[in-house]
Amino acid sequence: MCRWAAWMGAPMFLEEVISRPEHSLIAQSQRAEETKTAINADGFGAAWYNHRPEPGLYRDVHPAWSDANLAALAHQVRSPLFLVHVRASTGSNISRENCHPFTHGRWSFMHNGQVGGFDCFRKQADMLIDDAHYNARRGATDSEAIFLHALGLGLDVDPLGAMARAVGDLQDLSERHGQGPHMRFSAAFSDGARLYAVRYASDARAPSLYYRYLSDAAGYMVVSEPLDDAVGDWQAVPSGTALIFDGSSMETAAFAPGALRQAA
Amino acid sequence: MCRWAAWMGAPMFLEEVISRPEHSLIAQSQRAEETKTAINADGFGAAWYNHRPEPGLYRDVHPAWSDANLAALAHQVRSPLFLVHVRASTGSNISRENCHPFTHGRWSFMHNGQVGGFDCFRKQADMLIDDAHYNARRGATDSEAIFLHALGLGLDVDPLGAMARAVGDLQDLSERHGQGPHMRFSAAFSDGARLYAVRYASDARAPSLYYRYLSDAAGYMVVSEPLDDAVGDWQAVPSGTALIFDGSSMETAAFAPGALRQAA
Amino acid sequence: MCRWAAWMGAPMFLEEVISRPEHSLIAQSQRAEETKTAINADGFGAAWYNHRPEPGLYRDVHPAWSDANLAALAHQVRSPLFLVHVRASTGSNISRENCHPFTHGRWSFMHNGQVGGFDCFRKQADMLIDDAHYNARRGATDSEAIFLHALGLGLDVDPLGAMARAVGDLQDLSERHGQGPHMRFSAAFSDGARLYAVRYASDARAPSLYYRYLSDAAGYMVVSEPLDDAVGDWQAVPSGTALIFDGSSMETAAFAPGALRQAA
Amino acid sequence: MCRWAAWMGAPMFLEEVISRPEHSLIAQSQRAEETKTAINADGFGAAWYNHRPEPGLYRDVHPAWSDANLAALAHQVRSPLFLVHVRASTGSNISRENCHPFTHGRWSFMHNGQVGGFDCFRKQADMLIDDAHYNARRGATDSEAIFLHALGLGLDVDPLGAMARAVGDLQDLSERHGQGPHMRFSAAFSDGARLYAVRYASDARAPSLYYRYLSDAAGYMVVSEPLDDAVGDWQAVPSGTALIFDGSSMETAAFAPGALRQAA
C-alpha cells in the first residue's frame, strides 16, 4: 500500500504537504500509521498544476526522505492544485514508470490500494486500454492500467462514471482470474480544473481517506491519513464515496462500480 | 541504434570487452563508428553465465563510461559466456527495464536495430506475447517484445526457428501498421549452453555484425563493430545469416523470417 | 569542460534555455561546438530564483537529454533568474554532489573550465575553505572549492573581489603544485539580486562566453556558446572581463586575479 | 546506525548473507532489531575478493530490498571473503560516495557507529588524512575519514595498531570539538588475506557485534546482528575487542584507542 495527499485551494508550497507537517508525507513514508506497510520507500512522485494546462510531474525511485531534489522542489514550487504520493510496491518493479502520480494530457492520477492477483491477468488488463492510450502504458502497475482504461472510457466527458467503469472492469477481471481482496481503491485524480477523490473497496476494508478544509488557505487537503494530530478537523470519508472539489466548493457522490457493472 | 558484444570461450573478465580494448564497448558508447548514432549513452547492460543455469544481469541507465559499479563488475567478473550492450534509445523511455540484455530463465537476449513504427502497433505486439511469458514484459521496447514472443514460440525447442518466426511476426506488424524500414535485426541470444548471433533486415541495410576467433582464449567474440583495428581478424557476417557457437565450434545457417512466414 | 547558460529578466520558462532553442543546452550536451568535449553527459543542474531568497536546485547524473524529470521541471518552472549547466567531468566522480550549479544560502555558482592538476593539491584547496563554509563541501570538484573559498572571502560583501581572490588563490596553488593550464574560468554566479558572469584564464585560452539582450523579455541571456544561429545578436565577452547584470542594466569590469594576488 | 555482515571461508554466494537468511541483511535493512534505527535504507554496498588482489565494490543509494542489480550480483557472485553493508545515514548526504564499504587498493572497510558531532570538526578530520591518501576522499562521512586516516597511519604494516590510532584521533577530535557519545565503532576491514572485526565505544554502548563459525563452509560469519535465530551459535563480542580471521583460524586482541593515545 501507499500514502498520498492532494491539495486544491490557494497556491501553496508543496512542502506544506510533503515535509513540513508533523506527520507529513515524508514522515508517513517512514512511519505510516493507518496501513499495513509502515514503510513506503519504493519511490515517490508529485504532479502539480500551475502555468500550464498539463501538470508537471516529478517522480523517482529513492525513498522520499533522502532525495535532495524533492526537498528543493517542494520548497520552491507553489501550486493551487497538486497530488503527491509515496509508494510501497504491491508487486511490480521499482522504477520511475511505476511511481505515482501518472499523468496524461491534463489528467493526473494516483492510487492507494490494489487489484487482487493482478499478475494473473495483467495481459487482459493491458488489453482493456484502448488504442489511443496504449502508448502511454509505460510500466506494469495495476494503478496505471486503471487510469489509462478510464481515459479510454471517457474520463474527459464523465470523470466519475468513467473511473467507476474502469474500476469495475478491473475488479471483474480480478474476480474471474485473480484473488481476493479484489479491489482496494483510494484514489485522487484531476484535470487541473477539478480534483476528485474516491474511496472504494470490493470488501469492507477500503483504504483510509480523509479531507479537511483550511479556511486561511481557502482550500481542501485530501489525504490517506491525517498530516497532523488535529483530529477533529479531519473528516473521514465513507467507503463507496466520491468527493468533487471545484474551487472552494465540495460535493459528494456515490461511487459504485458494482452497480454500474450490473447495469451494463 | 546500439552497440553490443558477446563472448563464448575460456573464462574472460568482462572488461576485456567492456573497457580494455582500444575500441571497447565503452569507447563505442561515446564514438561508435559503424552506425548513425555515434553516442550510445541511454543505458547499458551485461548478462553473464557462470555458476548458475540462469545468467546474472546488471543494467543501468547511466552512460556506460561513468558508472563505477560497472567498472568494478567488469574488472572482477570472469565468465565463459556473456553478452554486453550499450543503448541508444529508438523511442522508448530511458529506464532499466528498457536496457538490454533481457533475460528470462536461462535465456538472455540483446538486439541492435529497430522495428519500424513500433509505437503504432505496440499493443498488437504485446498481444503476441503468450500468457506464460506476459508477466515478464517489464518495459516498452520492440526488442523485449521480440524476445518474449520468441520464448512463447518455443525458443527452448528450436531457438533459430522460434526467433525467425518472432522476427517475422513483428516485421509483418510493421508492414501492416508501421513504417519502413520494417525490420533491422542484429542480435545475440543464449541459453548458457550455446550462443546465437543473427544478422537480418527487411531491406538491404542490416546492422553490422562481425565475429573473431581468439585462439589463445579458445573462443569467439561476436560484435556490432570490431573492438580494435586488427582488421583482418574480424569476419563480417552476411545479412540473412545466423551463427551458432557451441563450445569452440561454430556453424552458420540461413536466417529468413520472410520464408518462414510464407510457409505459415 | 562543460556548457552553461543563465538568464536574468522577465520570468521565463527554464525550457527556453534547456531544450527549446535550436542549439539548446540539451543539444549542447550532445553536440557542443565551441569546446573540446562535444559530449557533456556527466550530469546537469538547474538553480532558479523565484518565491524564496535562496534558489531551488535540481541536479542529477543522467545525461540531460534523457531525464523526464528535468523536462517536466523545465516546462513548468518560470523564473526571472536562473542558472543551468551540463557537465563534462574533468576528473572527479560522476555524482550529484559534483554537478553544477552549487548553492549556499542565497548564492548559486557554476563554472566551465578547470584548475590545472587539481588532484595534486586538492587537500590544500580544501584547506582554503574557511570553517564557516567547510561543511558545505560535499563533493571533490575544483569548482565547488573555488565557490566555497570565495564565500569565505566575502562574496556577500564584494562579489567580484572575493571571486577574483578565490580564483587567484586556486591558480596560485596550481602554479606551485599542479600543472598548466593553471586556470580556465568561465563562470556565472548570483545572489538572487544580481547576476555575475566572468571570463578569465591564466593563458590565452579562456573558455568562451557570450551574452545577448532580449528586448521582448527585457533581460539578458549569458551563455558558454550561442543557443541559436542569430550570430549578430550574441556578443562575445573578452577574456579578463566580468559582467554585472542588475535588473535590465549591465555593467562591465575588469577581472584580474593576477593583479589582486600581486597586491596581496 | 547501520547493519553489516562479513564472511571469510570457503567461497560462498553473497546472497547467503544479503538475502537468503531469515534475518538477512536485506531483512535488517527493513527491520533491524538491535539498533535504534530499524530502517537502514540510505544505501548499501558490497566489497568482495575473488580473482584480483583488490576487491570488487558495488554500492548504490537505493534501499537494498529494491535493487534488482544487487539481487543479481548476490545470486551470481561467489567469494571466499566479502563485506556487505546497509546504511542508515548519521548526517551526511545520501550518495554512492557515502555508502560503505570503502575500498582503497587491497583494503576494504565498513563501519557501524558514529563519531559524535562530526560536522563540528570535519575539516580537522579531513586534514588528518595524509597527502598520499587525500585524493581517495570522495564523500563526507566520518567512516571514510577514519579509514583513510588509518591507511595513512600504516594499515598495511600494523592493521590493528593503525586503526586504533585512527579511531583514537577521531575520538579525540570529538572530545575537543564535538559532542558525546564521542565514538561508537563496530567495524570490519580486510586486505584480502585477513579479515579484521572490531567492537569499541568511548562509552558503555558499543554497537553490537557477533561471529559464528560455520563448519560445513569452513569459515566465519561476522555480523552486526545474527542472521537467524540459531541463538546458541552466535558469539557476542565484548566491547574493546578485535577479532583477526586468518584462513580458518581466529584470534582475539584488545582494542584500546584510549590507551594508545595516552601512550603517545
UniProtKB/TrEMBL annotation, chains A, B, C, D:
Keywords: Glutamine amidotransferase, Transferase. The keyword Transferase applies. Signal peptide: none annotated. PROSITE patterns: GATASE_TYPE_2. The lineage of its organism: Bacteria, Pseudomonadati, Pseudomonadota, Alphaproteobacteria, Rhodobacterales. Residues 2-264 form the Glutamine amidotransferase type-2 domain. GO terms for molecular function: transferase activity. The keyword Transferase applies. InterPro entries: EgtC-like (IPR026869), Gamma-glu_amide_hydrolase (IPR052373), GATase_2_dom (IPR017932), Ntn_hydrolases_N (IPR029055). This is Glutamine amidotransferases class-II.
